[in-house]
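Sanity check

After download, print the first record. It should look like this:
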Amino acid sequence: MKLLESAVGSFERLLPQRKSAPASWFAALMVAAALLLLPFTLRLDGKPHADWLQFLGRFHPLVVHVPIGLIVLVPLLEFAGDARPSLREAAGFVLGLAFVGCLAALTLGYLLSYAGGDSGTDVTRHMWGGIGLTISVLACMLVRPAWTSGSVQRLYPAMLTCTLLLLAWTAHQGGSLTHGRNYLTDYMPALLKRALTIGVVQAKAPASNSFYARHIDPIFLRKCVECHGESKTKGDLRLDSYALLMEGGKDGPVIVSGHSAASLLLKRVTLPPKHKRFMPAEGKPPLTAEEIAWIKAWIEQGASPTAIRLAGIHIGGEDDEPLQPVGDYSKLIPGILALENGQGAKLLPVSNKLSDGLILNTVDVAASFGDAQLARFEKYAPYIVEAELGRTAVTDACFNTLATFTHLRALHLEGTRVTGAGLRTLAGLSQLRYLNLSNTKVTQAQLAPLRSMKKLRHLYLYNTPAQPASIADAGQPEGSNAR
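Expected structure tokens:
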């Protein structure tokens, strides 16, 4: 404690002599006015600015915790000052440091939003919260001398309490920007949620039965609107409605109907993940191959908000029947690792539960992975639940091997040389739910054997001779699962 008192005394000697009260109030009013005018003089226009400004702004998350800690420390020092006056003297110094920290955090935060092209309701709330908090701390500094002298008793404690409440609200707005609005309530006990009437939000029902409403809009809601919605809007682009999506952003339209290659949105989500313009940014979950395929086909076929179906994409209802466990393959792991080293393809576990099975991944060796390489995985066939063979060198001969994958649930064959001649061999795969044959030579006649596959819910025939025919056109009874 003596060491703390000595340190405080040293800081006190470094501080300049206090100015007269009128001069202090005038200077404070000027600072407050400048802060209040900041959003009107340097508007958050939703457009990115100089990279060096954004570089400086990214120090905001680091700096912002300094004033938070100092503001919380002040009332503790004031309370402890009843017994130790030196701590109360330290509280005044800490309050001054908190004000300087607020100014620094506010400046860097504003640069982060301005340079990064951020806007939206949550950004605006966080900005005004930061401005209000800085002014509130400044006001506490001005009122505190009258409180310590005994001339004013209740004003300073009340203002300090309001400052703490404003700090909590502002910090929550910042957390919502980073982690989402439900960050504090996601894991709140249900009983407490009901008592506080928060987090009880019904899932959004599709506005219509269109393909856009059922499949495209939910992708944007899950993966995109956190940065391109009402709460936060980067690049002046919003994706939370069809009209705003087609309106585009600062770089113009992001969807060009009928031309996926010219659509900026599709370009951004298919860039290499390490590219600085890859979307979704900031480490958020990328779109899956299936989601990208839906968006691409939707754009190519007119980007309609009302079309019920897309040619070449058939999606049935959901299957609530539980998946069959595949069994324990732990004793085979040494052989799996040896095979991976020789083939380049990988068998990846679905989860930590061995019974969830394996995924055959060929992304890194797609061009050289053919029928012979696939056949070498037949020993592990009963444990493979998904085979990612898209854009590999496999042909119709692969179906003989795939017929042994008895627990197969998803099969990717898009962009391969298969013609569909062996599709009949898949009829015995009772667990198959997903089959992607896009960009292959599959014809209408070769789809007929699939009608006996009751579990098949997702069939992709985009850019094939079978498009726009459906399984029903090939003899599938009306009302079947795969449509």
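If your output differs, re-run the checksum step. Summary of this record's structure: The chain is about 45% helix and 5% strand.
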